[in-house]
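Review box. Two proteins, two foldings.
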Amino acid sequence: MYLRYFGLNEAPFSITPDPAFVFLSPRHRDALAHLMYGIGKGGSGGFVQLTGEVGTGKTTLCRCLLEQIPEGTQIALLLNPLVTPRELLAAVSEELGIDVSASIDSTRLLVDGLNRYLLAAHERGERVVVVIDEAQNLSIEALEQVRLLTNLETSKEKLLQIVLLGQPELRDLLQRRTLRQLAQRITARYHLSPLGPKETHLYVRHRMQVAGAQRNPFRRSAMNALYQRSQGIPRLINIIADRSLIAAFAKERMDVTSAMVHEAANEVQLGERQVKRVRWPLLLGATAVVAVAVLAVASFSGFQLPSDSDGKESESAVMQVADEPETEVASLPQPVPESLPEPIQPAMVEALDKDWLEGHQQVVWQGLAEIWRQPGAGFAIQAACNEDDSLGYACLRDQGNWLKINRLGLPVILVLQNGSASYLLLQGVDDDRLLVGAPGQLTTVSRESVESSWLGSYLVVWPQAAGWPSFVGRGDTGPAVATIMEMASLVDVPYHGDRVFDAAFELWLKDFQARNGLETDGIVGRNTLLHLMTASIQEPKLLRTWE
């Protein structure tokens, strides 16, 4: 609807992987180089593993790869890995054009047919590569079958190369002891992290130019806000930017402001058009029942914020909104109960009831406050998730799946999409059930009934002092560094070095970030801080069992 208004030839922020709009950041070029290595002779018949968060561009890179495959290379592309081992063999064979009509019911016959094809391709001087997208969804049995395929070989070389593309959960899956033989055969690994602030700016400009724009309508502060709200994930950038252009068109504005970006992001991520006080990226604070290191974060007071009257921007605030007026938060006050409600036996239902969910919207923020043993903090938590970072809590919007939420180990708020967005307070996850609801109205529902309207977006909240610095990096000193060191000594692979943020700790931190699917920048920002903190939190915890 806005194409003619902005002088565009086509929509600049479509989420379909159009090759004409491909933007290869340095990290995307590195990832593509790893994939090219994998299908070339450098792969040596092993596995190549590429991981990245949802929406970071793995599928787009896969399409780029298919357009650049060397001559004499046969590719079998599997887009749906939710198959049995035999179905996987059949799918690979069909992708390569092998007739499986006579062997579809026999694993041995399928392997024999595939082996004959590979030997014939080898004699012709061709290479055969299997590319499996969304590989984190492969079963253990299917992964073992994939490993066995790499045993097909001549006396000098392997006949098949495997490329695995998946979300960070794939790395966790391959660390299982039962899959150690497969892990040992991975010859190249690369984790595709989101775009940084500068790359996000370049990405927006690139897509606008390809779409025919003569000028970039996004103000600098709007692009800063776009990075903050998308966390550099290209798919989210596209969705938020598209809605921001619609907002500018509706208001008959030629420029997109940061206020429009925040409003668009709320539609996408929160489903609300609330007016907010934006103070990115200052963090929040309160107290809660947590371990010593987290208490230090919650009560931190060793960092002084610059006053608004000095006319200068804070050097620690890398993203400042400078060209729109601030407006107050528009939301209802939360009731403060005199005491916490007693837990009740959760009811079991097969599906999430729409009427129950509608009523749940009125208590979701207060419910999370009660879980944190701060029954008066419902308003503060709601404000935190609307970017009002002055009332004692921090809120992180993230994308993931059940495995990622389980690994985080904290109660979260799922953002559901049923025409309009709604919230669901999640307190427990097991194999096929979810424990949802605020204390006093807990309900157990099937995962399936929630997955139909959950696209992977969730909110996680924790108490944190208003004076906590936005970023802590190499060379910084003070109470924040001491707290971070305390937390680092409590994680699964603890840090035991000197309690200073030096090169050694930066190296350890980058490894920690890589293990947790974070951007490996060696800086403790909000996402890294949360992952460091989770090992220190005694309660609340995401429940694994309940009755």
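Next protein.
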Amino acid sequence: MSPLPQFKSFRSRILSFFLGLIIVIQVSSLYFVDYANTQNARVLVGEALNATAQSFRNQILTRNIGLTQAGRLLSGDLAFKTAYASGSTGTISTALDNHRRRVSANLMFLLSIEGKLVASSGSNTEFFKSADGMFYFPEFINNAILNGEASGLVSIDNEIYSLIAVPLLTPVPTAWIVLGFQIDDELIKELQSESHSHISLLTNREGNWEIGISTLSTEEQKILAENLGMKNAIIGKTFDLASSSATFFTFIEALPSSGNSSIYAILQRNSNDALAPYYRLRLILIALLIAALIISIVAGGAIASSVTRPVRSLVHLAGQIQKGEYQNKIDLYQKDELGQLASAFNDMSNGLYERDKVRNLLGKVISPEIAEELINKDVKLGGEEKEMTILFTDLRNFTGMSEKRPPAEVLSLLNEYLTRMTGIIDKYGGVVDKYIGDAIMALFGAPLDLPEHAQKAVRCAIEMNTALIQLNHDFEKKGLPTLEMGIGINTGNVVVGNMGSRDRLNYTVIGDNVNLAARLESITKEYQVPIIVSEATRLQSGQINFKNLGRIKVKGKQDQVTIYTPT
């Protein structure tokens, strides 16, 4: 997947500037009605501080929305699901690190559905792990469990982070993807330059105020914390807060937070600085008021339209991609960040469409599990030794029956038989390696690990035999011939991987234990039983009962083997 473009909200900032200009001009015009009334000035400045607080919340919300969308994309990424299913912490951590860098997040975690930390990426992630291995903020995870997703601010080691959590769906929620970014000096200094207000982020733990980040001087920070500790704080209203050098108009905004502490944004403006422009500019602002309002409204409306229209189109396209509809495109001919984002969306949609087309076609030619193995790993010759269970089935006297029937009827009969048997193999976690005419070769334990593969293979064979009886009843009703099937099962070490030439390969297994499974299938007719298993398979088959058929020397092996049939 190509890296996601970093969305620089240049136009949104221009819009915020024009809207902020409207607010400032409106505040100024109201103040000049009675500029001598200091209380009115406090109210008007408080409104501006409130607007700045809302702008701060909106900036965090905008970035959280971006991270949430990025988390949802990762949640739907089949390659990441495969990495998670592998259980390899290294693979999961690498995937997290790559995705975190693409979306420009500071932190990224993968948690179990109960909140246990599985893997992480980013700096200082160790602070988010409690002594028992759980995520340090259980309230945040509980909120995600309750609402399906979560977002909020947390404070740790006097640093403040904004976190979002989305579920990893496979297809039900099995883990949590958590992304976050640190609210640092750069962010609040940028907001300070736009609003001309001092901004501080504080945490309140059981009545104790601690400053996490601030644009105030060290001395002013200390005085602020002392005043708040004396309960001189009024949440949501503008009030005066005096320091040794000046009086500040102060506005406190509660921010959505998780954990055992509350987080507040405190916005302050020096009262002398706030009132001085009213006196200096009262003559010229009235003349500029009407022109500024018209320019701001027109320009703001135009910019808002140019931003919201493509954003709505992008949101609509994202929803279609989320539903698996990859053929739609967005036409946005803009040489800016939105144009780049639209182009990236189109490329991503086209790539997902081509990937699904290849995967669907490959999944019809070979087993879907083998298709996933080939898609998600480097395709190269060679294999690895692995213990697994091999199951062979073959129809008895099928060749003679085929000679007496029309080819179309034989093919229809065979397809119905293979469809029924393949469904049962899939049910027990087996993978069809290949069809050899009327024979089936199935693997239990590859390409994905399968616990109790021997027992599942035997139970699969028993159900296949039962299904054949029912299938024969259906054939009799249609006037079709009945079928007889033999099944051979063996468990042992084999070599599994890609075999063939460098230009054409086949994912399969080879080895003496594969040959033994085929030999056991071939002697079922001699013993007049539908299923024969080896000693190794019987020993790993749990509580299944077997009948000892004796020892026999099979073709290709010097030593005799003990064979069994399930009862």
